[in-house]
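Hello K.,

You asked for the raw outputs rather than the summary table, so here they are, unedited. I folded two proteins back to back in the same session to keep the settings identical. This is the first:
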Amino acid sequence: MSVLECNNLTKHYGSAPALNHVSFTVEPGRIVGLLGPNGSGKTTLLKLANGLLTPSEGEIVVCGAAPGRESHAQVSYLPERTAIPTWMSTRQLLDFYGDFYADFRREAAEEMLRHLNIQPKQRIKQMSKGTREKVQLIMVMSRAAKLYLLDEPIGGVDPATRDYILSTIIGNYNPEASVMISTHLIADVEKVLDDVIFINQGQLVLQSSVDEIREEKGMSVDALFREVFKC
């Protein structure tokens, strides 16, 4: 069974289509890059998959069901903006996730936090922006989910932090699960991707494995992206 399936998925904001008859599937065990310029519909697609928005037309199926209470237990979502309560301490945040998510792996989270030298009593508001982003990602990746939806996880951080974030993603997801990473920073994430989905102005441009792109087109994903989306 596919982890994520979109069939003629369409979402309008007023008269403007953010997504326009998009169809694709994501199989278990794949890391997929959802790639496109800013404003191409990436965030809308992730919000639809997480049940934060409802389709205008078509359907989206997550782990065999429409997004809702059942799928929420199987989807771990990282929003584009940091959304963890800043008044909490690290320990309180761990307690919060443990209470809220039955699949939260507290030991895995604690190990990654120790790696960052983050103390249990330290409050989120005392952390730098980059550290907050790392902490939120650790919380998201410490769930034993079936589908991880990551919206611009490396968008506003320095190159060293990007490497840490990518290694966290690779090292902590369930191998039978799938990860969808929305980004426009292709060169940074390409090394971890199995498949790519290109979207532009709400429409599907390409779905392919990274190996096929390299073998058939003789270029990197980043080079193909630049060719497809050149101004």
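The second followed immediately with the same parameters:
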Amino acid sequence: MTTAVSLTTIDDCWNRIGFRGDRSCPELERVVHCHNCQVFGNAGRHFLDAPSPPGYAAEWTRRLAAPIEADPADLVGVLTFRLGEEWLALEVRLLVEVTTPRPVHRIPRRGGILAGVVNIRGELHLCVHLDALLGVRRDVPQAGAPRRHQPRLLVVRRENERWVLPVDEVDEVHRFSRQGLTGTPATLSRSLARLTRGVFSHDERSIGLLDEERLFETLRARTR
């Protein structure tokens, strides 16, 4: 079983003799910045491998693995989630897992929608700013104010591609009829409208169903 790592077991040399310290580390001349050093990377991996809260993985495993009863062919299962004030959805078959937020390691000299890489169960995956891609403003936490909902990371996959998408809130898996899908309203941003297949209603919400083909194609193009 994986156990949490105490701060006292990690030598934070980057704060003492590294880039944030007195800069006396002999490795700095070679690696330029502590972010490029193997010691810093190994320390980050310890934090990234910390276990999820008790019962969290089991709960989402139960939700996502629950058998779907026989339904008409036009029903589709989707996971709904929120970015800022926009409710969106992706088909469940694209979803690998929903997990808690964790540190994202920035990639030197790369920016734009690419946030960096994040460790998911021992594997590094590219993490992107979905809000920037869709032209949606995410929640901005106020200092000292309690959060109503916990942000999450969605790990999605299509063929051989995997991406990590930070979102503000995750709802549940829902099913809706494809016949209930309507056109995108004019109030959506141009970027969001271009990557949305249509809109459906659930629990008095208008939810935009993302177009997986255009979404993954755009992610590839914008992160090259």
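The longest strand covers residues 75-83.

Happy to rerun anything if the numbers look odd on your end.

Regards,
P.
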